[in-house]
């Protein structure tokens, strides 16, 4: 039986760009479904599983940022790559805060798009092999935060917490190296991929979102701590 193709939902209303993107993705052997407005995108996600959504911001019916927010409110963890002509830091931060896994500004090359697609898919993929002898379960010393790698489940106290693929990978990296200060560059490359290294706003947004989900008092974090001028460290217990 042939291996099932990776499925991508492409949400783009500009016909020429839509056709070009679809063709280039299909040439990489992805299975591509197209939606040309925000409401159609939400309907498609509810009816079918996709491995990735590529989402334009400026859409009829419902804009891409609202689509992204709606999907995350439904606890759907599909990876989302936003495409936008809006290139300001504020626009990018807004997209990431609403749950996007990556944000690519127009114009972009096909090579750049394909690299971002591969990076999103890589973060969402469950690792089937463990060449580095990584533990199957990661846990804070006090047991308050519990992460099951294989099932991609995270529990905080007695409650299961839903994380996006990027949030999960960021927490995994922090917990894997608990007690060790990780630089911005090392975290960006470990979580987003080797193509990254300077996008510090990605990291700030996702650390903030992660704290909202796993910290009792996000404004006074006790696990995910900031090391000024360096980056972040996961302190694994409630020690003072």
Describe this structure in words.
The structure is a single chain. The protein has 240 residues and is α/β, with parallel strands linked by helices. It folds into two domains: 7-124, 3-Layer(aba) Sandwich (Rossmann fold); 137-234, Winged helix-like DNA-binding domain superfamily/Winged helix DNA-binding domain (Arc Repressor Mutant, subunit A). The protein has helices spanning 15-27, 38-47, 64-73, 89-97, 110-124, 165-176, 184-191, 200-214; strands at residues 7-11, 31-35, 52-56, 80-84, 102-105, 137-139, 145-148, 153-156, 159-161, 182-183, 224-227, 231-234.
In terms of topology, how is this protein built?
Elements: E1 7-11, H1 15-27, E2 31-35, H2 38-47, E3 52-56, H3 64-73, E4 80-84, H4 89-97, E5 102-105, H5 110-124, E6 137-139, E7 145-148, E8 153-156, E9 159-161, H6 165-176, E10 182-183, H7 184-191, H8 200-214, E11 224-227, E12 231-234
Parallel strand pairs: 1-2, 1-3, 3-4, 4-5
Antiparallel strand pairs: 6-7, 7-8, 8-9, 10-12, 11-12
Largest sheet: 5 strands, parallel
| Silhouette | globular
The number of strands is: 12
CATH superfamily of the largest domain: Response regulator
Indicate the structural class. alpha/beta
Name of the CATH first level of the largest domain: Alpha Beta
**Which spans of ≥5 residues are poorly predicted at pLDDT below 50?**
126-131
Question: What is the H/E order?
Answer: EHEHEHEHEHEEEEHEHHEE
**What does the average pLDDT come to?**
88
Radius of gyration: 18 Å
Using the 3D structure, state the CATH architecture of the largest domain: 3-Layer(aba) Sandwich
Distance between the termini: 56 Å
Q: How many H/I helical runs? A: 8
Helix content range:
25-40%
Strand order of the largest sheet: 2-1-3-4-5
Kindly report the CATH topology of the largest domain: Rossmann fold
Number of domains: 2
